[in-house]
Predict the structure.
Amino acid sequence: MSAISKFGRRYDREFKEKAVVLVLSGRSQGEVSRDLGVSAWSLGEWIKKVQAGHAPTQAAALAAESPEQRELRRLRQENGYLRQQRDILKKALGICSAEPSGAR
């Protein structure tokens, strides 16, 4: 977020792009608006710019994705997250099951 002007808040390009990406990835516009503290009107304008082709690259790419592509991307992200969790648990199990060095 940038400085506040007399007309309200001003948001930098990165913030706008991330807000639009949230909506395009499946969350409702109202929910994103509430969560980020952005007016629904402003968020709607940012989305219109993406759909018109005058938008940040990541958001524009998401707007062009089919529902199947979005689902595949989401599943790949989830798969990566679950692999990280599995690796952490394996390490923790190894630490917990290791014999203490002074025992015998």
In short: The first strand starts at residue 4 and ends at 5. The chain has two domains: 1-64, 66-98.
